[in-house]
UniProtKB/TrEMBL annotation:
<dbReference type="InterPro" id="IPR001245">
    <property type="entry name" value="Ser-Thr/Tyr_kinase_cat_dom"/>
</dbReference>
<feature type="domain" description="Apple">
    <location>
        <begin position="355"/>
        <end position="428"/>
    </location>
</feature>
<dbReference type="GO" id="GO:0005886">
    <property type="term" value="C:plasma membrane"/>
</dbReference>
<feature type="domain" description="Bulb-type lectin">
    <location>
        <begin position="28"/>
        <end position="148"/>
    </location>
</feature>
<keyword id="KW-0812">Transmembrane</keyword>
<dbReference type="InterPro" id="IPR008271">
    <property type="entry name" value="Ser/Thr_kinase_AS"/>
</dbReference>
<keyword id="KW-0325">Glycoprotein</keyword>
<dbReference type="GO" id="GO:0004674">
    <property type="term" value="F:protein serine/threonine kinase activity"/>
</dbReference>
<dbReference type="InterPro" id="IPR024171">
    <property type="entry name" value="SRK-like_kinase"/>
</dbReference>
<dbReference type="InterPro" id="IPR036426">
    <property type="entry name" value="Bulb-type_lectin_dom_sf"/>
</dbReference>
<keyword id="KW-0472">Membrane</keyword>
<keyword id="KW-0808">Transferase</keyword>
<feature type="signal peptide">
    <location>
        <begin position="1"/>
        <end position="26"/>
    </location>
</feature>
<dbReference type="InterPro" id="IPR011009">
    <property type="entry name" value="Kinase-like_dom_sf"/>
</dbReference>
<dbReference type="InterPro" id="IPR001480">
    <property type="entry name" value="Bulb-type_lectin_dom"/>
</dbReference>
<dbReference type="Pfam" id="PF00954">
    <property type="entry name" value="S_locus_glycop"/>
</dbReference>
<keyword id="KW-1015">Disulfide bond</keyword>
Length: 834
């Protein structure tokens, strides 16, 4: 598979090359003074991804100069002379005497110019591998102009959308007028420097769509946007006028399933994500917004809420009524709603009686209204601070953003089926009326019902307990009973339903039973969190590992198969391969390639001391795990957060290459929620990031945390989890941190592997490990960064901050973290599959 992919790629590029030599005689990527690019010629970027040349849109004879992907189907990402087309093919592109990049028509008149001043004597324009056309001063190398600071309708990796004060540029996407006319259309998209930035699409300058605020990982108003989905996204905001957004995808090498991804604002005002899968020649639209009626800005007017699942889609918030009943009834909602009862400060009697204060109505899973004000209040003060401020009419608290307030009006509210934020709307005391009535009912009836229920429950649980006691020992091993439901990591873009089952071999039950000696205890390799694993041998001699899944997946058969097929497509040299599966007799089994050597923990922590791993092997293992993880995180079709990365899940092949196992299990064991947030935590104590263990929030960065722990274990040869016993109450992380602060990291390194010539390299590894286990997810590097610093010699690494769980001197922040009523580290229900 891997081979055929790269083969395909080579083939693809050779096709490009052949085409390329046919149509052009200039194979350069740059143009200098006194050189001319004729209509029939192109500049091609060094690695052949992009080309610059003349083109006509479909059904048009106008000629434009643009940058496009170097593939057969036309995909223009930037146009120079957007509103000044050439009428014929006599145009040329050149560098003029004043150093400008210019387009000349047949009469040598300038049609378009890069418009730099003052003039430079000698400049060169070069098309880079990122698709950026850069005009440089030849003598100083200074960048005079670049196409990335004058965007058209396409948003590529490394572009910056928004304002960058350091270069004095503000970038907007501007839609084409129509598919045949690249001149400025009615739509634009960008980011405005606000305290809580968001992406907006404007139609003729008025808001048309907005993403909702950025919480440092996702835009919270985009449903299904999870941090791992858009993992390469970055938003820089320094609150002094610089706020821009950019993204990058990691280089996937030979394992790539796509060649390119970009976003485009099309002429009808939709922001689309387009993917080009490896070996294909057509772009696929994998995401687009606005996605439904409710996504259009202010669909239901002020104080109106939009819900695609109700009819009509618009309703006034509780406590509000339509401003104009007649128009509202006709479906013209834009005028919005008004308050039924004035708030306390709007009432004229200045002395408000006790007990007639305003209150807050809670709305769950909402797209928060536009124009949020960021307030410097703690979570617990957010409500009271809002109540105290007469102009505050709503508040919301969101992790990663903080306390938000609204004034005057609430516009562009939407109800999501899941995800979104909880918002609290300020209402007058009297709007509470029906709530009070409820209270009476609740006050009498609830206690009666409760006592009945308790009595019944008590009886049954007593009976159950009695019955259960006999089986307890057994069920401790059966993780199916303990195993919480995983949240689904399903992504909207995935074409899971189109997966063909033929792609995955189905094994029949008898065959696997024979191969494993009827699942005999002696062929059992181990017991994972998802069920036991057996070693087997197929009739033709191939050795396999069979994982018999416990029954907790709760998925339909087709759904299960879909997941398995999709996961089995993930192939990477650092992932264990899935060979097929079996679904028969109520059993679900996965068949894997067999790994002759054991898992990493056996090598690191004892038993196999004869197979001692020296530093060079350890370094290879660390890098391999990193590469496997990067593939899981950054694969474009399926972003997978492993969530249980640990030494026993790293298997070693015959050459001691590491292979990550149990990946994708979270998908198979998924529930129906899309949030990257779970109230039940699964993982292994010692490897779980604090935000995951305590708040159930997982992301790429929680895997990075586990990777950091693993890295420290590999270097020190000591288990994080068992550390407490042999080193009086200091965890491995705390120990590493202590030695780091004492400047004595050498002591941390396993003595057997230590060699003073390696000191620098190994210490660097510990340094990286400490960066990965920092308490705040934002501080941790992502896997691609980790890999690049592991494999290169970047001299300056940032200084790590204190890791989580070190105890002792907790910072004030840590204290509030604990006092939020979250679970204490010791009391988490921990599953530690062996
Ligand atoms: C080009 O013209 C053909 C025939 O008139 C039409 O079907 C097609 O949609 C046009 N394409 C575009 C992009 O307008
Ligand atoms: C335009 O300029 C080029 C190069 O300077 C020259 O060869 C050509 O004759 C000129 N064409 C016209 C129409 O002036
Ligand atoms: C541009 O610079 C090169 C040397 O870098 C020099 O030889 C050439 O004369 C310069 N051209 C002009 C027009 O100044
Ligand atoms: C060319 O370079 C760009 C940017 O570095 C990269 O995204 C792309 O994958 C490269 N293409 C090839 C064929 O190497
Ligand atoms: C300008 O610089 C580029 C690359 O540095 C070089 O290839 C080119 O020959 C130079 N042009 C002139 C006119 O010096
Ligand atoms: C940005 O523009 C301002 C005024 O327009 C100017 O003072 C400043 O020097 C510029 N900064 C840069 C980096 O070009
Ligand atoms: C989000 O995901 C759910 C379930 O996968 C899907 O039904 C819904 O249409 C998605 N929403 C959007 C806006 O893509
Ligand atoms: C713009 O994108 C939307 C959503 O993908 C699509 O329905 C529409 O046809 C596109 N418009 C044009 C002109 O391509
Ligand atoms: C809706 O109301 C607005 C403003 O009151 C008006 O301009 C518009 O024509 C109305 N639309 C419809 C479909 O009635
Ligand atoms: C409050 O008093 C002002 C003038 O005294 C009046 O115009 C306004 O309507 C009153 N508001 C309410 C809610 O009674
Ligand atoms: C609350 O009060 C402060 C000043 O006291 C003011 O600046 C702010 O805009 C008010 N409104 C909200 C919603 O915080």
């Amino acid at each position: 598979m891997k081979l055929s992919l790269s083969y395909k790629k080579i083939l693809l590029w050779s096709v490009y090359l052949v085409l390329f030599f046919h149509i052009t005689n200039a194979s350069s990527d740059s143009i200098s003074i006194n050189q001319f690019l004729q209509d029939s010629e192109t500049l091609v970027s060094n690695n052949k991804t992009f080309k610059l040349g003349f083109f006509s849109p479909q059904n048009s004879t106008n000629r434009y100069v643009g940058i496009m992907y170097n593939i057969q189907s036309q995909s223009v990402i930037w146009v120079a002379n957007r509103d000044k087309p050439l009428q014929d093919s006599s145009g040329t592109l050149t560098i003029s005497e004043d150093g400008n990049l210019v387009i000349l028509n047949g009469q040598n008149k300038t049609v378009w110019s890069s418009n730099i001043s003052p003039a430079v004597r000698n400049s060169t324009a070069q098309l880079s591998d990122t698709g950026n056309l850069v005009l440089k001063d030849n003598s100083s190398g200074r960048v005079l102009w670049e196409s990335f600071s004058d965007l058209s309708d396409s948003f590529l990796q490394h572009m910056k959308l928004g304002t960058d004060k350091s270069t004095n540029t503000t970038n907007l996407l501007k839609s084409w007028k129509s598919p045949v006319d690249p001149s400025d259309g009615s739509f634009s998209a960008g980011i405005q420097p606000e305290t809580i930035p968001q992406i907006s699409i404007w139609k003729n300058g008025l808001p048309h769509w907005r993403s909702g605020p950025w919480n440092k990982q996702i835009f919270i108003g985009v449903p299904n946007m999870t941090s791992f989905y858009f993992s390469g996204f970055e938003l820089v905001n320094d609150n002094t006028g610089t706020a821009y957004f950019s993204y990058s995808y990691a280089d996937q090498g030979d394992d790539a399933v796509y060649d390119a991804v970009y976003l485009v604002l099309n002429s009808t005002g939709f922001l689309q994500q387009k993917d080009l899968y490896a070996g294909k020649n057509e772009w696929e639209v994998t995401w687009a917004t606005p996605a439904n009626e409710c996504d259009f800005y202010g669909k239901c007017g002020a104080f109106g809420s939009c819900d695609t699942n109700s009819s009509p889609i618009c309703s006034c918030l509780q406590g509000f009524k339509p401003k104009n009943e007649e128009e509202w009834g006709k479906g013209n909602w834009t005028k919005g709603c008004i308050r039924k009862t004035a708030l306390e400060n709007e009432r004229n009697n200045s002395n408000i009686e006790q007990g007639t204060q305003d209150w807050f109505l809670k709305l769950q899973s909402m797209k928060v209204p536009d124009s949020a004000i960021l307030v410097n209040s703690a979570e617990e003060d957010c409500e009271s601070d809002c109540l105290r401020n007469v102009s505050c009419i709503a508040y919301s608290y969101y992790i990663g953003i903080g306390c938000m307030n609204w004034e005057r009006s609430l516009i562009d509210i939407q109800k999501f089926s899941n995800s979104g934020a909880d918002i609290f709307i300020r209402l007058a005391y009297t709007e509470q009326e029906h709530k009070k009535n409820n209270k009476v009912v609740i006050g009498i009836i609830i206690p009666i019902i409760c006592s009945i229920v308790i009595a019944i429950l008590g009886y049954f649980s007593w009976k159950l307990l009695a019955k259960h006691r006999g089986r307890k020992r057994k069920s401790d091993f059966l993780s199916s009973e303990l195993f919480p439901r995983y949240y689904k990591l399903k992504l909207a873009r995935d074409d899971i339903n189109q997966v063909k089952f033929e792609d995955l071999p189905l094994y029949n039950f008898d065959m696997l039973a024979n191969a494993t000696d009827n699942f005999h205890q002696s062929s059992k390799l181990g017991q994972g969190g998802f069920g036991p694993v057996y070693k087997g041998k197929l009739p033709e001699g191939q050795e396999i590992a069979v994982k018999r899944l416990s029954q907790s997946s709760g998925q339909g058969l087709e759904e299960f198969m879909n997941e398995v097929v999709v996961i089995s497509k993930l192939q990477h040299r650092n992932l264990v391969r899935i060979l097929g599966c079996c679904i028969e007799r109520g059993e679900k089994m996965l068949v894997y390639e067999f790994m002759p050597n054991r898992s990493l923990d056996a090598y690191l922590f004892g038993c196999f001391s004869e197979y001692f791993l020296d530093w060079s092997k350890r370094a290879i293992i660390i890098e391999g795990i990193g590469r496997g993880l990067l593939y899981l995180h950054r694969d474009s079709r399926l972003r997978i957060i492993h969530r249980d990365l640990k030494a026993s899940n790293i298997l070693l092949d015959e050459y001691l290459n590491p292979k990550i196992s149990d990946f994708g299990m979270a998908r198979i064991f998924a529930g129906n929620q899309d949030q990257a947030n779970t109230s039940r935590v699964v993982g292994t104590y010692g490897y779980m990031a604090p935000e995951y263990a305590m708040e159930g929030r997982f992301s790429e960065k929680s895997d990075v945390y586990s990777f950091g722990v693993l890295l420290l274990e590999i270097v020190s040869g000591r288990r994080n989890t068992s550390f407490d016993q042999d080193n009086c109450a200091l965890s491995l992380l705390a120990y590493a941190w202590k030695l780091w602060n004492e400047n004595n990291i050498v002591k941390f390194i396993e003595p057997k592997i230590f060699d003073s010539s390696l000191e620098k390299e190994v210490c660097r590894c510990v340094h990286i490990g400490l960066l990965c286990v920092q308490e705040y997810a934002d501080d941790r590097p992502n896997v691609s960064t980790v890999l690049s610093i592991l494999t290169s010699d970047i001299a300056e690494l940032p200084t790590p901050k204190q890791p989580a769980f070190t105890g002792g001197h907790a910072s004030p922040k840590q204290e509030s973290f604990r006092s939020q009523g979250s679970v204490n580290a010791d009391s988490i229900t921990i599953l530690e599959p062996r």
